[in-house]
Amino acid sequence: MDWRDLSLGAELGRALPVPLLVDNDLRSSTTAELLFGMGSDHDDFLVLGIGVVLERRVQRGANGFSGEFGHLPVDPAGPRCNCGNGGCLQALVGQTALLERARRAGVGLGSRDGLAELIDAAEGGERAVLTILEEAGELLGRSVAGVVNVLAIKAIKVIGESHVLWPFLGPAFTAAAVAETIEPLRDLEITVSPWRDTEHARGAACLLLARSEAITRP
Question: Which DSSP category does 88 fall into?
Answer without folding.
Answer: B
